[in-house]
Amino acid sequence: MRRVALAAALTVLTAATACTEDVTAPGHCPDFCPSGSITGVDTVLQTVVQRDSAFRGFVRPHEASALLAADLRDTIDSRAIFLTLPIGDSLVVESGTGARGQIVGVDSLKLTVTITRRDTSAHNLTLVYYRLPLDLDSTKTFADLAGAWTTADSLRSLNVDDLLAQPTHSALGDSVYVDTLSNRVTVIAKLDSAMAPYVVADSGKAAFGVKVVADSRASIALGSVEAGLGPLLTWFAEADSVAKDTVPRSSTVGVRFDSFVFDLLSPSVDTTLDSTLAVGGMPVARSIMRFALPRLIRDSVQISRATLVLVTARPPEGVPADSFTLSAHGVLADFSAKSPLSPDPSRVATTRVHIGIARADTVRIEMADILRSWQIDTLAPTTLALRQVPEGTEFPEIRFEPSTNLALAPALHVTYVRRFPFGKP
Amino acid sequence: MRQALRRLGGQAVGTALALLTAYPANRLSGQDSQFSVRGLGVPGRWESVRARTTGGAFGPFDPRSSVADVSLADALQLTATAVEATTYRRAEIGGSRDDLRSSRFPFMSLAGPLSRRFVVGGGFATYLDRTYSIVTRDSQMLRGAYAPYTDRVGSDGAVADLRVAAAARLGSWIAIGAGAHVLSGSSRQTAQRIYDDTTFLGTTQTAVVRYDGFGISGSVALDPVRSVRIVGYARSDNRLRARLGDTETDRVDLPTTLGAALRWSPSPSARVAGTVAWRSWSDAGGFNTTSWSAGAEVGAGPTPFRLGVRGGQLPFGPGTAAPTEFGVTLGTGKSFSGNRALVDLGLERLVRKGGGLTETAWTVLVGLTIRP
User: Taking the CA of residue B223 as centre, how many other CA atoms within 13 Å lie in the half-sphere pointing to its CB?
Assistant: First the structure.
């Protein structure tokens, strides 16, 4: 009995004296608070950005992950162009033996393109197909192909909205499919042999151009080879057969080259760089901004919030769907235009630039993580590349006031907490 | 044989003292208190559970405590003691009430005779407790709107008193003692701000502040008659230096301590004692304090009963008057294995008042003493 009592007493004692800790209490200042306090500061650093400049040519049309087709009246006229791979002069006619037969004729073709971005407010969205010369390459300009874009040269047009309105999304051999996950629209247009004749000397290569029109300003992006969504051309051909005269066979080919050509119709989209900080456009422009951070910010304080404030010098032109992501991207080393971008996601800050923003409007990018990473890595260059994300998929270009415009220069709005006076009673 | 054992005991004491001196002093806080938020902190108690459960009155006479070095003269065999204290606190101010709790290991000592008249000892005790955590709510005008936030400022640590002392019995009626004290410790301090608006990132700053200082102490015990002992003791600590990394952030003078105690043993099974001590905390920017205690121990067997009261002032607090402290204690003990192991238990009720704050605490004390 005594042992049981002793065990019970020890249990109670252990429970009462077990390691436990709760020493947090509301402060009653100043009498029962530490002499030092946490001090928050909110300030705008007006001259923190220095030696900024813009550069162009980071992504060229044939390198872009989208083929831009736009009919922004009085601003930009852009058309997608692509050259398909050859199908050769024969097709497999007997799958068991692999025997091939000479192509003797073409019944029809199906040309497939994928619309990766569109403005749903542009009604009667229509794709107009053109046959282009086979010598397409990256040097071709809108003017070089001027002769191919006449109305008489168009193969046919396809009203995407009309097809979407059909219960089956198809009519007369044309069809559209909407990917409900990505909202991409795959457009399949039927061409006859007169529109795209098979030329033995060309081994079946074909070059096409795609123009977009709508009731209002139209701007779309077609998938490119770089994005894995390049155009496809399916030939429905007649091949010579040993057993019969001919047999129908089909062959689908991708594209060897894709790009887009455009005509800048307005001086407001002039691509000539000046002292302003250009971002986006085509060819793609980036702006390099170098930050001269005060030692206090670099060494001593903890950043709660940091906002890069940019004043628009030239607003972007386009349709609402052309709104794009603006990224402030840290660099690994400051080699000016050739600065390699940091792969560290903590050195990237983004915001959305909407079409409709006006001149002198401000664009803000929250970059507290970037400032904190600069505090941790004191060897990192305090340089940012302002860029569009992804580059080369939108026409609009925005320009910001540079640091040389003292009144409207880029500024850094910082909220931080000063170093706590540790070690004082 | 006796000499061999004595030599072995001396080596054990030396080794133990070295280990104790090297012990990190991070978790030695004696008793947390809201009065440790301002100033240097709350002074610790240099008492074993036995002394503490007599209100501290037996501290200058207890060889297991480090109040007066001369008490080591009664440690006639190697003795090691440790204390564990769990405190349940309630702080009331301005109509608000907070219940807090903490567990600490505030005291440890080791003592053993080198000869029949000469005893050495050492250990650690809390010199100043620096543990608290304060939460406040406020707001700040940020970007055109008030941004509410929560601040949390805390300190977790203590300044420990690492003592090496010796005592000698010069005669049947007189003994003397002296000690050297290294003050060492650290507190992990935290300052955190969290905004309600999560677009403002929270900030957390931490630092480890290290403390160091030095002190000496001396004491004498007189037995004018067989049943009465009088102890006088004094201690002088030079200064407490706070360092953050390699940078000295603060330096304050530390107080001089003067104390006297009287113990009367009317019978072998009953002892009463009283103590009074004065400390010049104004040297450190606080209030000079006078503390007193009275206590009794009844029973000479393996399970004595102890009780005591204590009172006095705390050195740091708001306003122009020192906060006051009053406590009542009781406890008992139990010996095992032929008196080679002792377990002391105690309960302390403490009330501290000052600057509108009333702090009450229940502390459960457990002491373990080994005499190998």
Answer: 16
For the beta carbon of residue A364, count every other beta carbon within 10 angstroms: 11
B197–chain A Cβ distance below 8 A for any pair:
no
Residue A136 belongs to domain spanning: 76-264
Query: Who among B152, B200, B318 is closest to A31 (CB)?
Result: B318
Q: Provide, as residue numbers in chain B, all residues whose Cβ is less than 8 Å from the Cβ of A38.
A: 151, 153, 191-193, 203
Please check the confidence at residue B86 and state whether its pLDDT lies above 60: yes
Q: What are phi and psi of A224, to 5 degrees?
A: -115, 170
Determine the Cα–Cα distance for residues A223 and A205; give it in Å rounded to an integer: 20
- The answer as to whether A122 is a domain residue is yes
Name the helix (H) or strand (E) containing A135.
Answer: none
* Rounded Cα gap, residues B177 and B80, in angstroms: 19
Q: What is the pLDDT of residues B57-71, one digit of tens each?
A: 999 999 999 999 999
**pLDDT tens-digit readout, B274-310:** 999 999 999 999 999 999 999 999 987 778 999 999 9
What is the rounded average pLDDT of the residues B320-344? Answer: 92
First and final C-alpha spacing in chain A = 54
* B125/B110 Cα distance (integer angstroms): 12
Q: Which residue of B has its CA nearest to A366?
A: B199
Strand, coil or helix: what is A41?
strand
Number of Cβ within a 10 Å radius of residue A215: 12
Least confident residue range of A1-15, A80-94, A339-353 = A1-15
Q: How many domains is chain A partitioned into structurally?
A: 2
Phi, psi of B339 (to 5 degrees): 70, 10
Measured between alpha carbons, how far is B203 from A303 in angstroms, rounded to an integer? 7
Region A3-15 average pLDDT: 62
Verify that A274 and A136 share a domain, yes or no. no
Euclidean distance between CA atoms B147 and A40, whole angstroms: 11
Listed in sequence order, the residues at least 6 apart from A376 whose beta carbon sits closer than 8 Å to its beta carbon are none
ipTM of the prediction greater than 0.90, yes or no: no
CATH code matching the domain that covers B2-370, chosen among 1.10.274.10, 2.40.160.60, 2.30.40.10, 3.30.390.10: 2.40.160.60
A positions 211-230 inside 8 Å of B (CB):
none
Distance between CA atoms of residues A183 and A221, nearest Å: 13
DSSP-derived pairing of the beta strands B132-142 and A24-26: parallel
- pLDDT (tens digit per residue) in A151-193: 667 888 999 999 999 888 888 889 999 999 999 999 999 999 8
Asked if A320 and A356 touch (Cβ cutoff 8 Å), the reply is yes
